[in-house]
Amino acid sequence: MRVEFLSGNEAVAKAALDAGLKFYAGYPITPSSEIMHYLARELPKKGGMFIQSEDELAAINMVVGAALAGVKSMTATSGPGFSLMQEGLGYAVMVEAPIVIVNVMRAGPGTGQATKAAQGDVMQARWGRHGDQVVVVLAPSSPQEAYDLTVKAFEIAWGLRVPVVVLSDEFVGHGREVVEMPDKVKEPEPGWGPEDYSKPPFGSDDPRKPPPLPPLGEGYDLLITGSTHDEWGYRDVHSFETHFKLVKRLKEKVLGNIEKIFMYEYFGDDEADILIVAYGSMSRPARTAVRRLQAAGFSAGLLKLKTLWPMNYDVLRSYVKDARVVIVPELNLGQVVYDVRIVAGNDTVVVPINKVGGGVPIYACEIVEKAQKVWGEALEEALQP
Amino acid sequence: MRRLRKHFSRKYLREEVLPTPFCPGCFNGVVMNVMFKAFEELGVERLKGYVFVSGIGCSSWIPSPHIKADTIHTLHGRAVAVATGVKLAKPNLNVIVIGGDGDLAAIGFNHLVHAARRNMDLLVILVNNLVYGMTRGQASPTTPEGMRTVTTPYGAYEPVMDVAELIARTNANYVARWCVANFNQLKNSIKEALSKHSKGFRFIEVIAPCITYVVRYEGKTPGQKIKELMKVCRPNTETPYGRIGILKAEDKPGYLDRYFEYVKRATEGDKGE
C-alpha cells in the first residue's frame, strides 16, 4: 500500500498512470492543469506519449485517435474546455472509443470564475451533445475517490468501449488529503479479446456486450465512421432501421450494465426521515449535517452519488420513498434535484440548496438549518386537521 | 472473346462499395487513381499498416469507405487531430489524411497549421475543389474572387487563402501543389512523400475544381476543364491557384524523432524541474 498526501488532481493523474495510461493530450485550463503538469513530467518517462494540443477540440480528437489505435488515453479540462469537447465526446460515443475525460468543474457560464468551484456541468455532461446517447459520468468527492474513480473510469471505458467522464470540481481537485493506493493496480482489460476480432466491430447480438475493437494496422481493414453505420462500419445515412438499431444499442450497452456502473454510498439511519442527496465535494458538508441532525435527535441519512449518469432510479427511489424531507445541496442553481423530484412521491418534500461562485461552499450548518425548518413546516402541515 | 484484365486499382478498393457516390466526372476519381498508381509503383500490394483519416466533405469520401485499409472518418475538420492521436499511439503506422478545402483550410485549419508547425509525421493530401461541394457549393476559403456561389450570389469578395504557401512557411518538411491535370507530377510527389521524404509533415495540395458547382457553372465539361488546367498549371509557374510545383522538400527530424530525443532527456537524469 502506498500512502501519499495528494491533491485531487494529482490523484487523478496517478490513478491514470496506474490504470495503464499511455497517451495524454490536453490544453492548459484552470483548475485542471495540475493533472497535465504531473503527466507532462511522468508520462514520457513511462514510455507514454504526452502532447499539449492547440485547443480542446484537438485534445479530445487526438485522444479518440489514440484510443481507436488501442492505447489507453485521457484528457483533462474544465468548463469552457469541456464545452469545446462536447463535439468530440459525441463522436467518441458514435465510434465507441474508450476514452476518459476529466472535467474539474469551475463556475460558469462563459469563462465565469476560473479558480472557483462549482457543480454546474452535471446536466452538460449528461445532455451536452446533439443526438441521443447515454454517457457514463462519475463524481469524486475527495482525492481518495478521485484516485479510485479514475481507475474505475478506465475499467468502465475499456470494459464497455464507451467514453467516461470524471466530473471532479475545484474543491476536490485542489484539496489535499491522504490517499491510499494499492502497490499494484490490475490494468483494466478490454471487454473483448483477439478471439472476437473476426466479429463485427460495430455490432453485437447481446446489446450489453461491447463489440471488439481490433488493433489498427494489422490487416483488419477497419471502417470507422461517426456517421450512422451498420455493424461492419459501412455508412448508411438513409435508413431508419440502421440508425435506430445503432443508437438503441449504444444506449442499451450502458443502461444494460447499470449494475456495474452505478456506485453510491449511504450513511446514516435506515429509512431516514430527513434524506440528503449529494455528490462530489458537497457530499462532505452533507455528511457533517447528517451527524449534527442525528445528534439533535432526527432520523437522518446521506445518499452520496458516485455515479451521476446513468442514474439508477430504482436505487434513488428506494431511499427517497422512506423520507419525509429530501435536501439536495448543489453548487449550482439546481440540477440533480430534478432527478430526485422524478422519484419523489407526493408525501415527500424535495428542497434544493443552491449556491455558486466565489469559492463558497454550502456549509453543514446551512443544510441543518434548512432541514430543521422544512421538517418543522412538514410536521405542521401533517398536523393540520 | 478477350477477357478484360481487372483494373490495377481494384486491389486497393473495397469492391463491394463501388461505384463511388461521386458526381460523374468528379476529379476525386483522378486523385484516387493517381494515389493508387503511386502505391503500385512503390510496390505496395496491400495497404496493411496504412491508416487513412478523413473528415467531412466530398474528398473525405475518397478513403472512407472506398480504400481497403484501416479508415477513420472523423468529424468535420478534426481529421488531422485524430490522425495525430493515431500516429503518436502507434508510431509504426503510416498515417495519411485526405480532406478538402473546407475541412482542412477552414474549420480544421488550426489543427493543420499546428501539425505542420510540429512537423508531425503525417502525409496530408488537400483536395482543393474551391467550394463546399457536399453541401451545395457554398464559398470556401479557396473560392476565387468573383465566383458566384449560393453564399456569394453577387460574386465572392473575400480574398483567397493560399494554403500550400502558408504551410510552406511553417516547419513542415514537404509541401507541393499540383492540379489534377499534373497526373505524373502528383503521383511522383505522393511517392516522394511516402519514400524519400517519409518523415515529418508532408503536405500536397491538389487543385481539383468541383465538377458540379464550379466547372458546370462555367459551362464546361470535365474533359474541357482538364485540358484548360493542363495549359494553365505548368509546373513551377504562378497560376490563378497559386504556385504549382514542389514548394519545399526538406529532411528535418519529424515530431517523433524530436519526442524520442526529449524522452531520452527525461530518462537520463534530467529532473524536469
Concise structural overview:
Chain A has 385 residues and is α/β, with parallel strands linked by helices.
Q: What are the SSEs and their pairings?
A:
The complex is a heterodimer of chains A (about 375) and B (about 270).
Chain A: E1 2-7, H1 8-18, E2 23-26, H2 33-42, E3 49-52, H3 56-68, E4 73-77, H4 79-95, E5 99-107, E6 113-117, H5 122-127, E7 136-138, H6 143-160, E8 164-169, H7 170-174, E9 176-181, E10 223-225, H8 240-255, H9 258-261, E11 264-268, E12 274-279, H10 283-295, E13 300-305, E14 307-309, H11 313-320, E15 325-330, H12 337-343, E16 349-354, H13 364-383
Parallel strand pairs in A: 2-3, 2-4, 4-5, 5-8, 7-8, 12-13, 12-15, 15-16
Antiparallel strand pairs in A: 1-9, 5-6, 7-14, 11-13
Helix pairs in contact in A: 1-2, 1-6, 3-4, 10-13
Chain B: H1 28-41, E1 50-54, E2 70-73, H2 79-89, E3 94-100, H3 101-107, H4 109-118, E4 123-128, E5 131-132, E6 138-139, H5 163-168, E7 174-179, H6 183-194, E8 202-207, H7 211-215, H8 222-232, E9 238-239, E10 242-243, E11 245-249, H9 255-267
Parallel strand pairs in B: 1-2, 1-3, 3-4, 4-8, 7-8
Antiparallel strand pairs in B: 5-6, 7-11, 9-10
Helix pairs in contact in B: 1-6, 3-4
Label this structure with key terms:
heterodimer, A: 385 residues, alpha/beta, Rossmann fold, eight-stranded mixed beta sheet, five-stranded mixed beta sheet, 13 helices, 22% strand, B: 273 residues, seven-stranded mixed beta sheet, two-stranded antiparallel sheet, 9 helices, 17% strand, globular
